[in-house]
Amino acid sequence: MTEKFTDIRENISLKAYNTFGIDVNARYFSRFGSESDLIHQLKFATDTSLAKLILGGGSNVLFERDYEGLVLRNEIPGISLIQEDSKHVWVSAGSGVVWNDLVMWAVKHKFGGIENLSLIPGSVGAGPIQNIGAYGVELKDTFWQLEAIRIENGEKVIFSAEQCHFGYRDSIFKQQLKGKLIITKVVLRLDKDPTINTSYGVIEKELNFMGVKANNVSVKDVSDAVIRIRKSKLPDPSVLGNAGSFFKNPEVPNDRYSELKGRYPGLVGYPFTPDTTKIAAGWMIEYCGWKGKRVGAVGSHKDQALVLVNYGGAKGIDVINLAAAISKSVLDEFGVVISPEVNIIR
Ligand code: FAD
Ligand code: EPU
Known about the structure:
Elements: E1 8-13, E2 25-32, H1 35-47, E3 52-55, E4 61-63, E5 67-74, E6 79-84, E7 88-94, H2 99-108, H3 127-130, E8 133-134, E9 137-138, E10 143-150, E11 156-160, H4 161-164, E12 181-191, H5 201-209, H6 219-233, E13 241-245, E14 251-253, H7 254-263, E15 269-273, E16 276-279, H8 281-287, E17 294-295, E18 298-300, E19 307-310, H9 316-334, E20 343-345
Parallel strand pairs: 2-5, 3-5, 4-20
Antiparallel strand pairs: 1-2, 6-7, 7-12, 8-9, 10-11, 10-12, 13-19, 14-16, 15-16, 17-18, 18-19
Helix pairs in contact: 5-6
The structure holds flavin-adenine dinucleotide and uridine-diphosphate-2(N-acetylglucosaminyl) butyric acid.
């Protein structure tokens, strides 16, 4: 018999539901494919006063131990064009849609704005949580609004871009509203006549390599280039467990950056605000000798030091200990604090 979305199951392994591949159990586990499923399952968890965790693709979480509450796995489907004018289309997507499926849909229809975000793993609904970003573009650049359910009372709420307080790998949903809402729908405004963004140097290089003429670059060309770059650099979680960049790139005042650059001429940084610079944490981690280093079942990836990997059988605590050792050496060497991007579930 096929499992109904409303079934709440007990003692389920989450290994297949987190890209780190950490084998922990959820005390209760359910999948929802609609708002009504969700409300029903939330009621069960509220009546039993269980902790609740919403999970999309599990590509930005690290489980430290078994989860004693209810894990709600989001599978709300659907992509539809809801409005258009001469320049734009407004596209609504169910929060359980795979993010890259939405990107491929946009690329197929030649709508621009999210092609640089090709192949980012995970669900549409998790995109606003950390304002996903890559290759010079962030979700906030095309975000229009989202719908969510308030966990405490099931009330439906709508957030505009401004209300989301988007920042670098940040939003109100990681701050004041952390764990309080479940995003059910996201609306993006895409361009009918796209402006191609190749500001991130490697894209141009890749397009050149692909033989694409600089004056004739399509949304699909950019998407293809980004996919090729990502495949060459980032480990595929189905082969090697990981959650992408484990740490965020730290932001420091410009004078602090100049001082560090004087001491470490190879240091990589990018202007962030008029007063601050974002430093490539991967460079600092590599400088400290961690790149490609393995400690038991975990390590820092050989091609991207910022990505921590599970070679198989790792526990969450192994990753946490490795991350702590890496942060400490970066702090000792550079005096810079690096913080996790990944959501650690304790
Ligand atoms: P999950 O891991 O399931 O959840 C992440 C957090 O969001 C959890 O706290 C969860 O409770 C919460 N959450 C999830 N869905 C909802 C919802 N509907 N409502 C409320 N809360 C929710 N990220 C980037 O920004 N840029 C990259 O380039 C990038 N590259 C990556 C490459 C690899 C190989 C991997 C493994 C990860 C990468 N990531 C990147 C991180 C990750 O893909 C994103 O953070 C993605 O948005 C996570 O989606 P998810 O559905 O897997 O979220
Ligand atoms: N670098 C090193 N050694 C390394 C890794 C990086 O020296 O091992 C230096 C290189 O000089 C490189 C620079 O760091 O030029 C930046 O590296 P890269 O372009 O790979 O980007 P990143 O800063 O490491 C960020 C995001 C990625 C995103 C890419 C592309 C964060 C925390 N990470 O990585 O997002 O895909 O840029 O835009 O901002 C994620 O969030 O999970 C993620 C993968």
